[in-house]
Amino acid sequence: MSGHHHDNHDHHHHHHGPDSGGKLIWALVITLGFAVAEAIGGWISGSLALMGDAGHMVTDSTALAIAAFAAALAKRPPSAKHSYGLLRAEAVAALFNGLFMMAVVMAILFAAIERFENPVPVSGVMVMVIAAIGLVVNLLVAFVLTHGAHGHHDLNTRGALLHVLGDLLGSVAALASGAVVYFTNWTLIDPILSILICVLIMFSALRLLKEVLNVIMEGVPSHLSLEDVGLRMAANTKVKSVHDLHLWTLSSGTIALSAHIVLQDMSDWERVLNELRDLLHDDFNIEHVTLQPELQSKTETFIPIESLITNE
Questions:
Q1: pTM (2 decimals)?
Q2: 96/90 Cα distance (integer angstroms)
Q3: Which of 141, 149, 245, 280 has CA atoms 20 to 30 A from the CA of 111?
Q4: CATH top-level class of 20-216
Q5: Does the domain made of 226-307 have the CATH classification 3.30.70.1350?
């Protein structure tokens, strides 16, 4: 068949939790505000570890901003020019965010190498004080993100929380740097721990870029199996086979699926459509579903369920 069948119930609209955007904005304000204070403190104290942690928090603030922005965009209706709305804006922004994180890593690594060759004095007390405040701030942000949503956290919020946990480790590294400098006056610990913070940022950046590229390339979401989804759909007693099954991510937490459903009796379609739509939504959280029914030909060879996922 050349056209797809669209039913007025084919699509579920994705909505974030009622306070998802608000939580993310509060977390953004707290994180970005302290990152600025930490950067100023790092410059005054001469601590590269502190400035590195500030850089990490700035990049994570960007991630929080992207998550909050996506939560807002997800509520905007589709338009004549953007039939899915502006959900992919999140992927584009996240791509820039990942590249920006890589640039921060390069800058800190270059400065750390310079510090090995030309050590500079570091104020251990100021570093310890600011890093300790950073620990409290990151714990506060984690509390904001994990409370007030009745135990439910959308993918945006969970992703932002991972960044905050990375910040906690960065604050611990900066605190350790300040303590070592204060008690031993060994200033080389500062660039050493700065490099460790860079490793944290690098892992965050690479993970983010991998996820973004998978979305842009319309890959199957990492937490889903194309075969598993197809087998569950074909398990419906009225479905003979499923083929041309496609599964991709529109944005964080918003997954789309299209497939051809082969039936023995077309009169079963309305019931099958509703059952498959509920299955995909309830068991796999697949929000946008487009299914095309096809009538099984009398001469058509029966396709076993094990071989149901085919591409013509």
A1: 0.66
A2: 10
A3: 141
A4: mainly alpha
A5: yes
